[in-house]
Amino acid sequence: MTRKRIIYEGKAKILYEGSEPGTLIQYFKDDATAFNAEKKAVLDGKGVINNRISEFMMKRLDAVGIPNHFIRRLNMREQLIKKVDIIPLEVIVRNVAAGSLTKRLGVEEGTALPRALVEFSLKNDELGDPVVSEEHIACFNWATPQEMDEIISYALRINDFMCGLFAAVNIRLIDFKIEFGRHFDGDLQRTILADEISPDSCRLWDFDTNEKLDKDRFRRDLGGVTEAYSEVARRLGILKTSASGAEIVDFQAGPK
Ligand code: TMP
Asked: Which helix H or strand E contains 121, and what residues bound it?
């Protein structure tokens, strides 16, 4: 057996060279970090659940016309993805005030926003991913104006779609973070959704009880982190509980 070549190792994922040209393998670790890796833990099974949830979200988004990097799941922790040049921005969409927005602007957690709010952070751990404006992005050329138009339009479409998808399973989508990449296909360059969509990168609250079903359980030491992630997977129909415990079942993402 040959060892796969590591292309990049992040806090929760590893990217390996893919088996086909122009592809990578995205491996989901059980590692969880918060506050720029000041807080760390290993959460048994988190990577397996996030691999499944991200696959589910990417397939659904593809089916509604949002191009993304997902090609196919390879096994419990790995998926084959299209290789992209990541645009160095974290794109955050918020529907309800929470997290850093409440700290920065003094808005109370849980306040519904009058419209979806799109924010950008520069992907730079040394600087602590600072919030940046479109003016900064244009001035330093982190993304072109055309890419920004596409990113904002995709981000709002993804938000609309995911709000509905989660509402149907009694989950309120508070906010989420996504990343985009430049995909080169011959002479054609396209902006596509990359990275992951999982309870690590979203805030998800139960609609009736406001119970947190996301990484805030880890950030705030609330316990039951993987149980909450499993609950999200169960509600989406990815996980089925059998008499012998939880088992993962296959699902259809609609016509391909
Ligand atoms: P924030 O309120 O801490 O800025 O987070 C906004 C959203 O982005 C929230 O859903 C969590 C997600 N997020 C990440 O995915 N990665 C990060 O490094 C941070 C800080 C937030």
From this structure: strand 112-122
54: enclosing H helix or E strand:
helix 46-63
Provide CATH code, domain 86-206. Answer: 3.30.470.20
| 84 phi/psi in degrees, rounded to 5 | -135, 165
DSSP bridge pairs for 182: 85, 191
Closest C-alpha residue for ligand 1 atom 8: 177
With beta carbons less than 8 A apart as the criterion, state whether 168 and 90 touch: no
**What is the per-residue pLDDT across 35-52, written as a single tens digit (0 to 9) for each?**
999 999 999 999 999 999
pTM over 0.90: yes
How many angstroms separate the Cα of 160 from the Cα of each of 9, 116, 208, 228?
A: 31, 9, 20, 23
- C-alpha of residue 122 to centroid of ligand 1, in Å: 12
User: What residues pair up with 137 in beta bridges, in sequence order?
Assistant: none
Residue 197 CA to ligand 1 center (angstroms) comes to 12
120 lines ligand 1 (CB under 6 A): no
Dist. CA 220–CA 174, nearest whole Å: 16
Using H for helix, E for strand and C for coil, what is the string for 132-181?
ECHHHHHHCCCCCHHHHHHHHHHHHHHHHHHHHHHHCCCEEEEEEEEEEE
What is the C-alpha separation between 172 and 165, in angstroms, rounded?
10
Neighbour-count burial of 140, counting CB atoms closer than 10 A to its CB (0-12 exposed, 13-18 middle, 19+ buried): exposed
Closest approach atom of ligand 1 to CA 102: 2
Which stretch of DSSP H or E encloses residue 46?
helix 46-63
Per-residue pLDDT tens over the stretch 60-97: 999 999 999 999 999 999 999 999 999 999 999 999 99
